[in-house]
Amino acid sequence: MSKAAVIGWSDGAIIGLKLMIANPGRVSRLFAFAANSDPSGIYHLSDSRMFENYSQRTRDEYEKLSLTPGEYDDFLEQMEKMWGSQPNITKSELRNLEHPIWVAAGDHDEIVRRTDTLFIAENIPGAGLLIQPEVSHFSHLQNPQEFTEDLFRFLRAH
């Protein structure tokens, strides 16, 4: 079985961490941008104008592209339940990770608390910490060139 590099943003980064925890033999390395370890690691999303704008964008795209365009509110309700109860990644689980991992975030992340980003990075042995300047949780949208360059730098390094 071959190992895969995993690249994840936000919930995708959490999935990457959970995948490495549950199946360490399947993942060779992880670039985890804007992950949190538990629900206390995120700010109240209702306080973020940026998230409000992003939420409107996702609503518009969901209604345009989904096979169930009238069910966005149900989808969002399920997502909010998930954000309120997951993930639950422990210090012990992080300390058992062995593969190359970069924990990345924007220096103006309005969704994930910096303390939680640091908790994740500090508890993974040998993890790299990347704080991108002048971007938020949505770095890949705000500065796609920088995001892509950092991602390729990670892939070339490992």
Describe the structure in your own words.
The chain is of the alpha/beta class. It is 48% helix and 15% strand. It has seven helices and four strands; from the N terminus they run βαβαααβαβαα. It has helices spanning 11-22, 49-65, 72-85, 91-95, 114-123, 139-142, 144-157; strands spanning 4-9, 27-33, 101-106, 128-132. The chain is globular, with a radius of gyration of 16 Å. 27% of the residues are buried.
Radius of gyration: 16 Å
The side-by-side strand order for the widest beta sheet comes to 1-2-3-4
What's the end-to-end separation, in Å?
Answer: 19 Å
N to C succession of SSEs? EHEHHHEHEHH
Shape category = globular
Kindly state the mean pLDDT as a whole number? 94
Sheet having the most strands: 4 strands, parallel
Q: Can you count the beta strands? A: 4
* Helix proportion range: 40-55%
Q: Regions with pLDDT < 50 over 5+ consecutive residues?
A: none
The proportion of strand residues reads 15-25%
Structural class: alpha/beta
Briefly say what this structure is:
The protein has 158 residues and is α/β, with parallel strands linked by helices. The protein has helices at residues 11-22, 49-65, 72-85, 91-95, 114-123, 139-142, 144-157; strands spanning 4-9, 27-33, 101-106, 128-132.
Topology:
Layout: E1 4-9, H1 11-22, E2 27-33, H2 49-65, H3 72-85, H4 91-95, E3 101-106, H5 114-123, E4 128-132, H6 139-142, H7 144-157
Parallel strand pairs: 1-2, 2-3, 3-4
Structural features:
158 residues; alpha/beta; four-stranded parallel sheet
